[in-house]
Design a protein that fits this description.
The chain has 271 residues and is mostly beta strands. The chain contains one helix and 18 strands.
Length: 271
């Protein structure tokens, strides 16, 4: 699930003048909502990798009206991950993320990319990517910093709120026949429980649809997007255009420019 942030920085002419919609690439993870389970109540299409060979790991799907989550109980200083294997396209970059809560353990997304085979005499390509989030009491951290830092930025891994963990996966463009193993789970820490929801593995690029209302608008600029700028017809009352957002973990500035110096500015991300 993609999260669209569209925050007006200069709300001079109303939100209705510029509407933005991000269309992410399809999620390649199977059963991302943990909707389908086996006879033991564990998610289908997922495999548990008990790296610590610990008997204390216990997993269950917890059902909620606003979406299921996968809860994993663990002992102190243990390592164990829920795993899926996904084939990769040559020359394509990807983005992986997951929502997490924790009562004590740390959480990590661990990506292992490997070539299944290669030409004789050539070394098989291997590369790893990791995104870690370490446990701390989110409520205490927010209280300590609330007078100094914008509250929306005070995200920490704890039991009282969901934190989004993610990373970008960029491979050499000449690597072919590559697959990856996506692991999401417990990365050491204290005994307790982690909860996971909304895992996403998708191509990094997303499409952005922009709808412009009102006359007098001459240009829409999004540095870092493709294209970076589109010329508009100031005589039209409504018009639309499309962009490609090549990066996931990147803040794009959108600037709608009109005649007589009128401007609307927003910020978006397609995480």
């Amino acid at each position: 699930m993609a999260l669209l942030l569209a925050l007006p920085l200069v709300p001079l002419f109303g939100e209705e003048s510029l509407k933005l919609r991000v269309i992410p690439s399809p999620n390649l993870i199977q059963n991302p909502g943990f909707t389908h389970v086996d006879g033991a109540g564990l998610p289908l299409k997922w495999t548990f990798d008990n790296c610590s060979k610990s008997r204390h790991f216990k997993s269950q799907v917890v059902r909620h009206q606003d979406g299921n989550c996968l809860a994993v109980d663990t002992a102190w200083c243990s390592f164990g991950y829920w795993l899926q294997k996904i084939p990769l396209k040559k020359g394509v970059s990807y983005y992986v993320s997951c929502d997490a809560q924790s009562d004590g353990p740390n959480v990590m997304i661990w990506i292992q990319c490997k070539q299944d085979k290669t030409a004789a005499g050539k070394k098989v390509f291997r590369k790893e990517f990791r995104a870690r989030s370490f446990f701390r009491n989110g409520l205490e951290m927010r209280k300590a910093l609330q007078d100094f830092v914008d509250e929306t930025l005070l995200m920490s891994l704890g039991p009282d709120q969901w934190s989004r963990i993610g990373c970008e996966i960029v491979l050499p463009k000449n690597v072919d026949g590559c697959r990856c193993e996506v692991r999401i789970g417990v990365y050491s820490g204290n005994a307790g429980q982690i909860r996971l929801r909304n895992p996403v593995f998708r191509e990094m690029r997303s499409e952005l649809k922009a709808e412009i209302s009102g006359t007098g608008w001459t240009e829409l600029r999004i540095p870092g997007a493709k294209p970076a700028s589109v010329k508009l017809d100031p005589a039209l009352a409504t018009q639309s255009c499309s962009f490609v957002l090549p990066r996931a973990m990147y803040l794009y500035k959108v600037e709608l420019i009109g005649s007589q110096g009128k401007t609307i500015t927003k910020e978006i991300t397609n995480e």
